[in-house]
Design brief:
The structure is a single chain. It contains 14 helices and 20 strands. It is α+β, with helices and mostly antiparallel strands. The strands form three sheets. Strands 3, 4, 5, 6, 11, 12, 13, 14, 15 and 16 form a ten-stranded mixed β-sheet that branches. Strands 1, 2, 7, 8, 9, 10, 17 and 18 form an eight-stranded mixed β-sheet that branches. A hairpin with a 5-residue loop joins strand 17 and strand 18. Helix 9 packs across helix 10. The longest helix is centred in the N-terminal third of the chain and has 17 residues.
Length: 519
């Protein structure tokens, strides 16, 4: 038997990769297996925000919101290439309503019944005051009132909106966040296996025996097992590890639509609906607007999640209640959908289900930690909390270390993107503004490692379109675990929005040849 790993992690989403990185940085030997591509499920289908969750205040989720608000700036400092501050415009209207299941709505319904479920402006301002102050904000600017009359913020909106509040949150490239955590874990000694499925895990003495399925798969032993399977976490407990558990997940589908750019400024919109829900409208990939998300119960295979026509039309109606431009299905250029594995706390609706995480430790023998729920914003804290559950099994390991430690490519100041982009354009004059900007936003200080000694675009090899070159694809295969075109154009980037099906097929064929998989 080969020497056992200290920790084996099932699942290559943000929680699994975050836990692997945290543990590897403490000196543990770590192996992680993901049955598909990294971030192939929930972690690449978010609304792409590091945010505190303003609406969760109505559910009195103060601990969750505080942790998330604290993390925004910690994470921003560690990854200024893939995360950046954004301002959110929240238009005010008498049509805004509570979800009538929230604790706040029930209290106001009792003490102020004449409001008839409306969200009063003073309550929104109170919520934003808490949002500004719960997390010890240092970098991000606070809330302010803005006029929508004759301003850039008001131009895309219907004339009935005259006033708004503007507050701060952060954008994040979610799938790249996952990959960079995996890379950092590997740089610290972890083994990362993609397209490798765990088919069984069973205790043998004080170890876990883990059977793998996939290219080069084998049998692995580990002292502790972490189940970070996301939507499959309950299935792994019952059918892979064959353990009894009363805990479960509630699968909630969140769908998004992408349209052509609806406005010219770089701020986002926070829209409140008459049904008590909220959606965002966010500048996306330079030429588009991202609108989402929905909350719908999901009972099918998580891999089959897709934005239904009903969800698409719901988002269009929601947006049409605010924008001057009337949107229809013909304006939608792409949709995506992911399944959130929320901890099943018995809430009546998908919207009301908790977004906080639960870590359940089974220590009847070799330890197994099951991860239920969580938010992308709190993944680093979740990883620390996971370690706190496991620490007694690994005495002598060092303390928490990840706060402020940059991810690969992120070792530059939060406000350094413009300077870094300019430096790249000087070093590689053939790039141009958009190409250089994309490279810095994706790779940060590692962009020059991809471009190497190139003096012209031709030196980067085959041009697949939309500034995607052979040199970049090779880098993604060598350093970022990419195996198929979808890994490159829909997760490591969103260039699939700008490439034709034939161009994407060409990328796939090239990658198959490089791996010896061409037929």
């Amino acid at each position: 038997m080969d020497k056992p790993y200290d920790l084996f992690v099932i699942g290559g989403g943000i929680n699994g990769c975050g836990i692997a990185r945290d543990a590897a940085g403490r000196g543990l030997s770590v192996c992680l297996a993901e049955m598909e591509d990294l971030a192939s499920a929930t972690s690449s289908a978010s609304t792409k925000l590091f945010h505190g969750g303003l609406r969760y205040l109505e559910y009195f989720e103060f601990k969750l919101v505080r942790h998330a608000l604290q993390e925004r700036e910690t994470l921003l400092r560690a990854m200024p290439h893939i995360s950046w501050p954004m301002r959110f415009v929240l238009p005010l209207s008498r049509d805004m309503r509570f979800d009538n299941s929230t604790p706040t709505s029930k209290i106001l319904g009792t003490v102020m019944p004449w409001m008839k479920g409306r969200r009063p402006n003073w309550l929104i301002r109170l919520g934003l005051f808490l949002y500004d102050n719960l997390g010890g904000r240092q970098i991000l600017p606070g809330t302010k009132s803005v006029s929508l009359d004759g301003t850039a913020e008001g131009a895309p909106l219907q004339d009935r909106f005259n006033k708004a509040y503007e507050y701060s949150d952060c954008w994040v490239e979610d799938a790249r966040l996952v990959v960079l955590n995996a890379r950092d874990a590997e740089m610290r000694g972890a083994r990362i296996l993609v397209r490798t499925k765990v088919v069984s895990a069973q205790r043998e003495g004080d170890l876990w025996r883990i059977e793998l399925e996939g290219k080069g798969a084998d049998t692995i032993y580990a002292r502790a097992l972490v189940n970070a399977g996301g939507p499959w976490v309950a299935d792994i407990v019952r059918n892979v590890a064959r353990q009894n558990s009363s805990e479960g997940v509630r699968l909630v589908r969140g769908s998004h639509i992408v349209t052509r750019k609806l406005y010219d400024h770089d701020k986002c919109y926070f829209f409140q609906g008459t049904d008590g829900r909220i959606i965002f409208a966010i500048p996306y990939e330079g030429d588009y607007t991202l609108i989402g998300t929905t909350d719908a119960e999901h009972t099918a295979d998580p891999r089959e999640a897709e934005c239904t026509p009903q969800e698409r039309d719901y988002l269009l109606r929601f947006a049409n209640a605010y924008f001057k431009q009337v949107l229809s299905a013909e304006d939608v250029v792409w949709t995506y959908s992911g399944v959130r594995p929320l901890y099943d706390d018995g809430a009546k609706s998908a919207t009301a289900a908790t977004r906080d995480y639960v870590l359940s430790l089974d220590d009847a023998g070799a330890p197994m930690l099951n991860v239920f729920g969580g938010k992308i914003t709190t993944y680093r804290v979740l990883a620390q909390d996971a370690w706190a559950k496991l620490a007694r099994f690994f005495p002598g390991a060092p303390g928490d270390w990840t706060a402020g430690v940059p991810l690969p490519g992120g070792n530059f100041p939060v406000d350094g993107v413009a300077d870094l982009t300019q430096d790249l354009k000087v070093a590689y004059p053939f790039l141009g503004d958009r190409w250089a900007g994309r490279m810095i936003r994706a790779y940060g200080t590692e962009a020059s490692d991809i471009l190497g000694m190139a003096k012209s675009a031709e030196d980067l090899g085959r041009d697949f379109g939309a500034t995607l070159t052979e040199a970049e694809v090779r880098w993604l295969m060598t350093h970022e675990y990419a195996r198929k075109a979808a890994d490159v154009v829909w997760r490591r980037s969103k260039l699939g929005l700008k490439l034709t099906p034939d161009q994407i097929a060409e990328v796939d064929a090239f990658m198959a040849v490089q791996q010896g998989d061409a037929t």
